[in-house]
Amino acid sequence: MKIAFFGTQFYERELFDKHNTDGKHELIYYNESLNAEITNLAKGCVGVCAFVTDVVDEKTIENLAEIGIKLIDLRSAGYNNVDLKAAKKHQIKVLRVPAYSPQAVAEHAVALILTLNRKTHKAYNQVRENNFSLNNLLGFNLFEKTIGVVGTGKIGTAFCKIMLGFGCKIIAFDIKENKELQQKGVVYKSLDELLIASDIISIHCPLTPATNHLFDKNAFKKTKKGVMLINTSRGAMIKIDDAIESLKTQQIGYLGIDVYEQEEHLFFKDRSQSIIDDDLFERLLTFNNVLITPHQGFFTKEALEGIATTTIQNFTDFEDGNPLKTEIII
Ligand code: NAD
To answer: Does the predicted TM-score (pTM) go above 0.90?
Structure first.
C-alpha cells in the first residue's frame, strides 16, 4: 500500500523503514506538514500518515477525498487536529496510535516538576560559571504534597503511580474513575475541589470542546497561591494569556509546559535564526518560573518503536481487511 507521510523527521523515517518488513508498504516521506494546499503530494497513495502538527481540517479532507485517499493514519495518540465529521462524510477511515508508551509522557511530566522545583537547569548553568551559591536554588519536598491529576487514562495513571512513589497524596478529576488507582489511594474529586486543594496540578486529558481552555482565569482564581501547573497534554487546555496574568500576580508559582496552543508555528523545527512572531510565547519565556519543552514528552526510544510498530500494523490491517483496532469512530 502506498502511503504519504507528512511532517516527518529523520529519526522517524529509519524506524518506519525498519518496521516496514520486506518493504510491504511503499512509504513516501515529506518534510512539509499536511494542510489543504499540499494534498496533491499524496496523489496516487491510498493513505496519508499525519502528525499532531498537521492541519487535517475539512478542506484538507475534502482535497484528500478528491484524490482518492481512503485512510488517514495518525502517528499520535491525540486526534484533535482532525475533522472527524468530514472524514466520516468522505468515508475516509481515521486510525491512530492509542498507546505507545504512556510512561514516556508521564516521566516527562515528572521531569518538568523536578526541574521547576529543584532548579537543576539553573544549577547546571550556574556551576559551569563557577557560581556555587545556593541563593536561587531553594526547592520544596514532594513528599506529602497534594498532586491534582486531571485525566487518569493511560498517561495519567502512569503519572499517578510515579507520584505515589514520591509519597505524594493524589487527588484526581476524570469523567471516568479508575478502580486500580482508587485501590492505590488516589481519591477522585470535582475539578473545583482539585483546584482548591492541589500543590501541583498535572493535565493528562485529551483536548475536546469540554476541555478547551479548561484552565483559564476562573480556574486560576480557585487554585492555591503559588500552585505548580504542568501541561503535557495539549496546549489549548490552558488559556495562555490568563496564565500569563496569573504568573504576574504569582497566583501560578511555576508553569511547566510541553505543549503550546500555537505550537504548530514553532515546534519541531530549528528556529534559532528566526524572529519569533508570537508575543504570548515570548512573554512566557521572560518568566524565570516557566519551563517550556518542545512537545518532547513522547520522545523516547521505546515510544518511537511503539509508534512505528502500530502505524505499520495499521496500514497492514487496512490493506488486508482486518479489524481496525485503532480506528477513531464517531
Ligand atoms: P487516554 O484516552 O488514555 O486518557 C484520557 C483520560 O482523560 C481518560 O481517562 C478520559 O476519561 C479523560 N477525560 C476525557 N475527557 C475528560 C474531561 N472532559 N474531563 C476530565 N477527564 C476527561 O489518553 P492518554 O493516552 O492518557 O493521553 C492523554 C493526552 O496526552 C492525549 O489526548 C494527548 O493530548 C496527550 N499526549 C501528549 C503527548 C506528548 O508528547 N506531550 C504524547 C501523547 C499524548
So the answer is: yes
